[in-house]
């Protein structure tokens, strides 16, 4: 999961839980069903978790960090050892 | 500091969900304020609950000077409209209160019921007292008593709402003179004394 993916995951989890809480409360209040409100809220949390916890590559790996190319290490180790001895 | 992983996301989601759950539970408790609970009669044509003592089944003076009283009650009330979507149960109890020389207030529960369904919150009928009244050190015979209906609405979340209403006033019959056949200090009333005017 890249950095942009982490931010997206965090936002999606906040939105999912917030919307789930609002919808479940509205459902429970209008239907007079407290147990239904709790069940609907837990279901929304499970769905949100399914979307945001796994590192889905098609969602959270679309902006990979571009690392610089590594330089070959030829003779670099020998120069450092000589400097230490000297 | 560990690298970002699924456990961190799961922990954050769980914490947020707990906060959101507490918020909606508080909102559910807040909606109870829009309901006014006032006991009614189970009979649609009547407005006030009706509770009275039908008979005094037993009045005994114990050796320590205290009295023991058992009664039968005629109970009619409706508390079903006190229940909301946030209500777990409604508890109702009938108490007998009286005043003595030493204490201004003496109150004892003689009948109670906890109802979880709206049907059970409507009570109508004649019931023997579930609990007897035993005075502390002064007698109750011959005293004026007041029946009260007390109720408590137990919520699923949030505040519990209580109420009390006086429903009936009467006088406990005085005891007979001491019977020489009984043990010293023990007096017994005629069982199932009927209250005047009641069937």
UniProtKB/TrEMBL annotation, chain A:
Family as reported in the entry's similarity comment? Belongs to the SPCS1 family.
Chain's role: Component of the signal peptidase complex (SPC) which catalyzes the cleavage of N-terminal signal sequences from nascent proteins as they are translocated into the lumen of the endoplasmic reticulum. Dispensable for SPC enzymatic activity.
* UniProt main location, coarse: endoplasmic reticulum
Which domain of life does this protein belong to?
A: Eukaryota
Record GO cellular component, one term: signal peptidase complex
- On whether Membrane is a keyword of this UniProt record, the answer is yes
Q: Which residues cross the membrane?
A: 12-30, 36-61
Q: Which Pfam families match?
A: SPC12
Task: State the UniProt keywords alphabetically.
Answer: Endoplasmic reticulum, Membrane, Transmembrane, Transmembrane helix
Gene Ontology BP, a term: protein targeting to ER
**Where does the UniProt annotation locate this protein?**
Endoplasmic reticulum membrane
The membrane topology noted for this protein in its Swiss-Prot or TrEMBL record is:
Multi-pass membrane protein
The record's section on InterPro entries has: Spc1/SPCS1
Please identify the protein, giving its name as recorded.
Signal peptidase complex subunit 1
From TrEMBL, chain B:
Q: Which InterPro entries match?
A: SPC3 (IPR007653)
Family recorded in the similarity comment: Belongs to the SPCS3 family.
- Kindly give the membrane topology term recorded for this protein: Single-pass type II membrane protein
- Locate the region Disordered: 176-199
Q: What's the protein here called? A: Signal peptidase complex subunit 3
Any single Gene Ontology cellular-component annotation = signal peptidase complex
Keywords of the record, alphabetical order, are:
Endoplasmic reticulum, Membrane, Signal, Signal-anchor, Transmembrane, Transmembrane helix
Q: Where is this gene product found? A: Endoplasmic reticulum membrane
Function statement: Essential component of the signal peptidase complex (SPC) which catalyzes the cleavage of N-terminal signal sequences from nascent proteins as they are translocated into the lumen of the endoplasmic reticulum. Essential for the SPC catalytic activity, possibly by stabilizing and positioning the active center of the complex close to the lumenal surface.
Q: Does the keyword Cytoplasm apply?
A: no
What does UniProt give as the signal peptide span? 1-28
Q: What's the main place this protein lives?
A: endoplasmic reticulum
Its GO biological process annotations read: protein targeting to ER; signal peptide processing
Top-rank taxon, per record: Eukaryota
Species this chain originates from: Ostreococcus tauri
């Amino acid at each position: 999961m890249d950095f942009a993916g982490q931010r997206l995951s965090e936002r999606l989890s906040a939105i999912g839980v917030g919307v789930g809480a609002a919808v479940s409360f509205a459902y429970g209040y209008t239907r007079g069903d407290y147990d239904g409100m709790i069940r609907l809220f837990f279901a929304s949390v499970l769905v949100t978790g399914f979307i945001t916890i796994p590192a889905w590559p098609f969602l959270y790996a679309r902006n990979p960090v571009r690392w610089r190319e590594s330089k070959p290490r030829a003779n670099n180790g020998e120069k450092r050892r000589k400097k230490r001895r000297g | 500091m560990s690298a970002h992983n699924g456990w961190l996301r799961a922990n954050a989601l769980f914490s947020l969900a707990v906060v959101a759950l507490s918020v909606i539970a508080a909102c559910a408790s807040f909606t109870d304020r829009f309901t006014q609970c006032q006991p009614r009669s189970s009979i649609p044509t009547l407005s006030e609950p009706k509770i009275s003592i039908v008979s005094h089944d037993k009045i005994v003076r114990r050796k320590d000077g205290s009295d023991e009283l058992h009664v039968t009650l005629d109970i009619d009330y409706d508390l079903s409209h006190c229940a909301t979507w946030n209500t777990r149960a409604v508890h109702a109890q009938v108490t007998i209160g009286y005043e003595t020389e030493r204490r201004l207030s003496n109150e004892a529960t003689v009948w109670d019921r906890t109802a979880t369904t709206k049907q059970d919150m409507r009570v109508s009928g004649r019931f023997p007292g579930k609990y007897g009244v035993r005075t502390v050190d002064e007698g109750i015979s011959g005293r004026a008593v007041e029946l009260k209906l007390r109720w408590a609405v137990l919520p699923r979340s949030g505040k519990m709402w209580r109420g009390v209403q006086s429903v009936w006033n009467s006088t406990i019959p005085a005891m007979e003179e001491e019977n020489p056949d009984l043990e010293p200090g023990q007096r017994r009333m005629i069982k199932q004394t009927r209250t005047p005017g009641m069937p």
